[in-house]
């Protein structure tokens, strides 16, 4: 391989002349921008323990009233990317949000899209464009780009959920902004997951006669996902992943444009290698315990912990229990990479 010229190879006067004209020579920076074989990655394989996050979040509940926070969130920031940048991976923002009984996180909409994955508590709800969605532990709730959404809590005890956004992408494009609006009036109860999209393979007939809806289903109840994984496990050979993708029920395609969502069951004692791919991801542990080996880093996880996985990483998952399954929720940016034409899976 030919060694490329460095900045220092160039006469100072020439370099200063370039700088004065807002010009930069490519060749000293070429290998950094296009490294051979694998991208250079600043994202660290990381694990955030829920037992570390929870007390800090409850303390935030004491220190900061909701009116002073709007969204009371602690952000899981990857130190490799700079804490101030609030990125778990280059494309994925992750926050843990606390809402206390009677509190309201006011109605707004914004360019980045978000999902909520409920960690604990009962009585929380999210309203999306007038559709009121209950929030049970493990439920996935979509609040897509530019749709009105607000949160509330009519139960007792704290409600905590994980927010996952494509914020770093949209912010990086200088396209991130929000609008505030008056509180929504609920127009239906229960939500479409319990009324219109009850069974896979069945959709409202009217949906076949019109252009497919972008977001027909915005709540995926964990109860259904868990049962579907348990059923799939009975017909999946050991060594193959028991994994389900969350999709738009009308198109069968991924349910959000940038981020993709899946749920994985690690059977008792199971070890699983995930296919190495070009997407970055985060994993939240719904239940169980085990370890994730990410490239050369070994991380031990328990229920509700969150893991960050860099692009192109080798990932091996182990269920520590010989008796109980472990359930994992995975978010990656494969949908965006596919649309942009550079998604790769290496097997
Ligand atoms: Fe929001």
Automatic annotation (TrEMBL):
Residues 97-164 form the Cupin type-2 domain. It comes from the Bacteria. GO terms for molecular function: dioxygenase activity. Residues 182-195 have a biased composition (Polar residues). SUPFAM superfamilies: RmlC-like cupins. Residues 180-199 are annotated as: Disordered. Keywords: Dioxygenase, Oxidoreductase. InterPro entries: Cupin_2, GDO-like, RmlC-like_jellyroll, RmlC_Cupin_sf. Gene3D superfamilies: Jelly Rolls (2.60.120.10). This is Gentisate 1,2-dioxygenase. It comes from Roseiarcus fermentans.
């Amino acid at each position: 391989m030919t060694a490329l010229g460095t900045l220092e190879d160039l006469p100072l006067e020439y370099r200063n002349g370039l700088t004065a004209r807002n010009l930069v020579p490519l060749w000293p920076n070429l290998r950094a921008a296009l490294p051979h074989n694998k991208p250079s990655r600043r994202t660290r394989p990381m694990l955030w323990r829920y037992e570390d996050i929870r007390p800090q979040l409850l303390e935030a509940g004491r220190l900061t009233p909701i009116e002073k926070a709007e969204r009371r969130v602690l952000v899981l920031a990857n130190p490799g990317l700079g804490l101030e940048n609030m990125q778990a991976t280059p494309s994925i923002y992750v926050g843990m949000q606390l809402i206390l009984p009677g509190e309201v996180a006011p109605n707004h909409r914004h360019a980045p899209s978000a999902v909520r994955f409920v960690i604990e508590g009962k009585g929380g709800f999210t309203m999306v464009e007038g559709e009121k969605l209950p929030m049970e532990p493990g439920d996935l709730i979509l609040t897509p780009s530019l749709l009105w959404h607000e949160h509330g809590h009519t139960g007792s005890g704290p409600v905590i959920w994980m927010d996952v956004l494509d914020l770093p992408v949209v912010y990086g494009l200088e396209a991130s902004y929000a609008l505030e609006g008056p509180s929504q009036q609920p127009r239906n109860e229960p939500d479409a997951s319990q009324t219109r999209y009850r069974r896979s393979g069945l959709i409202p007939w009217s949906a076949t006669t019109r252009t497919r809806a972008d977001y027909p289903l915005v709540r995926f109840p964990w109860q259904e996902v868990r049962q579907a994984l348990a059923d799939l496990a009975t017909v999946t050979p050991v060594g193959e992943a028991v994994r389900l993708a969350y999709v738009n029920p009308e198109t069968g395609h991924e349910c959000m444009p940038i981020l993709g969502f899946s749920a994985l069951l690690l059977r008792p004692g199971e070890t699983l290698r995930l296919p190495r791919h070009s997407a970055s991801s985060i994993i939240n542990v719904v239940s169980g315990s085990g370890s994730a080996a990410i490239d050369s880093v070994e991380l031990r996880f328990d229920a509700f912990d969150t893991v960050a996985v860099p692009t192109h990483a080798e990932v091996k998952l182990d269920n520590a229990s010989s008796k109980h399954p472990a359930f994992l929720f995975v978010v990656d940016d494969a949908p965006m990479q596919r649309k942009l034409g550079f998604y790769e899976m290496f097997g």
